[in-house]
Design brief:
Chain lengths: ~300, ~230
């Protein structure tokens, strides 16, 4: 079943992201994707995430496609102008990639080439409009495409925990108007936060998949609260992670190797999914290197 | 304002190479406004060069070095000192440095880096406010330019980056789109956010031939001719 079919059906949709390597060894990312086979409806492949140079999303998507998996091409506007972005959309289609998540992208100063030229010729909304235009047979400049136009399935993102939320909602509506057919969210750690958000977008035509980022430690949670816009990890969860971390540390002092933190992380994610499930159309998992724990999360949450 | 900052002396010495004597041109306009070329820094640079065994044959302060015609005339007044120098060192923005390079037939070295060139900012100099995009969007954005106020020059609202209303690129800078949002809300114009302004047309930023024939361009070429005549006489 394609992502589009899953979203157009009434099933609870699950997507999960994988990250291409910084280097040419694709084994790890392919193994992570393999773990998701039969368990998810789509696999997002990040596009130079955190503005760090690495293998492209498109190349990785094509490898996943060749393995019979369902990739979602993430595209950011930081590194390419409107010619290159549109060309990549056409290239994605001819290589068999159909799902595209359109984002603005982190600024280059946040990444590993802070000296680079930030492009941002288009942004998330205008990239969606460009893709919609291509699907209607014309490019951004109004030139007609030869032959049948490509058929793509477009998605966008939103931050439900943004404060203030109102500006985000305007932009979200622009994204749906520009052609987004599914919405994946920034990490949510508070069921009530998503409930409040969903109330505000009850009339939105595109289904919302709530974002789940696996907590790796109490420190990571605190870091995100401080530095990642719109991510709010409740103190209770930080406390749970801190306690699990302390148990691991105590066991290590006795010379034993334990993994209470990972177990707690999986349990928290599964609990969140159960809580979020009645509120939205699906979940989007972002394991950030902990892809090997995703099957456990899905099993524990009953998906 | 075209903001500039002084280059490290080591880099300047590298440019001078084996040249032993130098004439300094400092701009009294923007470059002094941002303290890169004020008399204190110009004096310090001259002293450092002397310490390094280079001879400063003279120095000129010019109101706006970017005024190419005026700069050429000013240099005429220092003809002897300029002729005596192996090269000229210019403390101004890139426009001023190019104006000096156009005026003299000697090597011209930059002593400053132009750090931003936010277009001509009128007389409200604190921030770049206009990118001269050629298709003003201020009606959509409550009178705050999205191209200069947003670090990513986004046209359709903020990215996911702003944290507590501050920009992801520099946490000391307020998110331009948050400012736009607040301004529109305060003016009761939030409906402007649902409009779909046309994409930026970078071609608008090229000066076409017909624009090059305007009176300002004509004045500039007259000033060039004047300075040529003056140097012929000199």
């Amino acid at each position: 079943m394609s992502l589009r079919e899953a979203i157009e059906s009434d099933k609870f949709v699950i997507t999960c992201e994988v990250a291409p390597p910084k280097g040419v060894h694709m084994e790890h990312v392919l193994e992570e994707a393999e773990l998701l086979r039969g368990r998810v409806d789509g696999i997002n492949v990040t596009d130079l995430q955190a503005a760090c140079m690495r293998v492209s999303s498109l190349a990785t998507c094509v490898l996943l496609k060749q393995q019979g998996l369902e990739p979602i091409l993430q595209m950011v506007c930081r590194d390419r102008n409107r010619l290159a972005l549109q060309s990549e959309l056409l290239s994605a289609y001819v290589l068999g990639v159909r799902n595209v998540l359109c984002l603005t992208g982190d600024h280059v100063v946040l990444g590993d080439h802070p000296e680079a030229k930030p492009v941002f010729d288009l942004d998330s909304v205008s990239l969606l409009r460009a893709a919609t235009g291509l699907m209607e047979g014309r490019d951004v400049a109004g030139n007609e495409l030869e032959g049948d136009p490509p058929e793509l399935f477009l998605g966008a993102i939103v931050t439900p925990g943004a404060d203030p939320l109102e500006p985000q909602l305007y932009k979200l509506r622009s994204k749906v108007q520009a052609g987004a057919r599914f919405i994946q969210t920034q990490a949510v750690y508070d069921v009530d936060e998503l409930a409040r958000f969903m109330e505000r977008v009850s009339d939105l035509e595109a289904p919302v998949l709530a974002g789940i980022v696996l907590l790796k430690s109490a420190g990571m949670a605190r870091y995100m609260n401080q530095n990642v816009a719109g991510v709010n990890v409740p103190d209770a969860l930080i406390k749970e992670m801190a306690e699990a971390g302390a148990k691991d540390k105590a066991a290590k002092e006795e010379g034993k190797k334990t993994d209470y933190k990972a177990k707690k992380s999986v349990e928290i994610a599964a609990r969140l999914i159960e809580g979020l499930k009645p509120l939205c159309r699906g979940v989007h998992l972002m394991p950030l290197g902990w892809g090997h724990h995703v099957p456990a999360v899905l099993e524990m949450s009953g998906l | 304002m075209i903001a500039s900052e002084l280059k490290p002396t080591a880099e300047i010495l590298e440019y001078l190479g084996s040249e032993q004597s130098v004439f300094i041109v400092a701009c009294d306009g923007c470059a002094t406004g941002c303290q890169a070329a004020d008399p204190e820094h110009a004096g310090k640079l001259a002293a450092e060069l002397s310490e390094q065994g280079r001879r400063v044959t003279g120095a000129a302060r010019v109101e706006m070095v970017c005024n190419a015609g005026l700069t050429a005339l000013m240099l005429m007044q220092h003809l002897a000192a300029v002729n005596e120098a192996d090269s000229l060192l210019v403390m101004s923005c890139g426009v001023g440095i190019q104006a000096v390079a156009e005026a003299v037939e000697k090597p011209v070295h930059p002593a400053t880096n132009s750090v931003y060139l936010g277009g001509f900012q009128g007389l409200w100099r604190s921030d770049p406010r206009c990118a001269e995009c050629g298709n003003c969007m201020l009606d959509y954005t409550g009178g705050i330019c999205p191209y200069t106020a947003c670090s990513k020059s986004l046209l359709y609202g903020s990215c996911g980056g702003p944290n507590d209303g501050m920009c992801e690129v520099d946490p000391d800078v307020p998110c331009g789109w948050m400012r736009i949002y607040e301004r529109l809300a305060a003016r009761g114009r939030l409906d402007r956010l649902t409009a779909v302004p046309v994409l930026r047309n970078f071609r608008n930023m090229l000066a076409e031939g017909k624009r090059r024939r305007t009176s300002l361009w004509a004045l500039e070429s007259m000033a060039g001719e004047l300075s040529e005549e003056a140097s012929d006489e000199g």
